Amino acid sequence: MRSKVDVRQLTKSYLSAEGEVRAVDGVSFSVGDGEFVAIVGPSGCGKSTLVNVLAGFLRPDHGAVLVDGVEVTGASASRILISQQGSVFPWLTVRENLTFGIRDLPHVDQTELAFHYSSLVGLLGFEDCYPHELSGGMVRRAELARALVMKPDILLMDEPFSGLDALMTLRMRNEVLRILAEERHTVLSITHDVEEAIHMADRVIVLSSRPAKVQAVFEVPLPRPRNLTSPEVQELRVRILAELGVGRSE
Questions:
Q1: What distance separates the 2 farthest-apart alpha carbons in the chain?
Q2: In angstroms, rounded to a whole number, what is the distance separating the alpha carbons of residues 80 and 92?
């Protein structure tokens, strides 16, 4: 598999009231073209800092992120981040949110794209609704459609299902996997949920406590759709949790 993203000895610190805090320390890994990689780690370990560097919103202190061999020096429409804070504009309708990023692109049929992606995420009939008129799950679908309409090479997700109940989270995971089966993207997803990582990813990278380092990498060689109650999934879950210091591997 051809490498799409190369993270090389990435280090990033920030200033706090207590002084300089190192969030990420010498992180290196690669992501193949079309691969889905989940990154898990303890709360506060630097996961969100890492994904913001990958998105180009933050510059690393040392090291580099390369996409297709070219160093990332800033944000790009080819890398779209879906964050836990949400990304839809509350004063715009679903249709207006979907077409916001492509409104100035020539030779683009905005109406057709809005229809296609509204249909893809199950929001047909709600295109003229505002975010406050939608359920939490529908807003997350609108955020996903808003990202996909840009046709990014790389989809970055930072706890995209936070705040949803367990049933809606499971539905959203399945929705994302269904869409990714139709539209090919390279995906990096930051999550604290080990089950979510195993459910969705081809590979799981485990980060250490802050400052974040790559502690372990687990392949997930299981066909989709995955049975989350299978012995293989449960064994992998135990091993990953053991790396995170929760319980002991058998």
A1: 58
A2: 19
Positive or negative: CA dihedral 230, 222, 67, 108: negative
User: What is the CA angle 155-160-162, rounded to 5?
Assistant: 170
pLDDT at 14: 86
Instruction: Please tell me the predicted confidence (pLDDT) of residue 175.
Output: 84
Residue 44 falls within a domain, yes or no? yes
- Which tokens hold the place of 33? 């073209």
- Total structural domains within the chain: 1
Q: Is residue 219 part of a domain?
A: yes
Q: Per-residue pLDDT tens for 39-72?
A: 999 888 888 899 999 999 999 999 999 999 999 9
Helix, strand or coil for residue 48? helix
Kindly state whether residue 117 falls inside one of the protein's structural domains: no
CATH code, 206: 3.40.50.300
Residue-number span of the structural domain to which 66 is assigned: 1-78+154-163+185-250
The model carries a pTM of 0.87
Cβ atoms of 98 and 114 within 8 Å: the answer is yes
139 located within any domain: no
Cα angle for residues 212, 69, 66 (degrees, 5° grid): 25
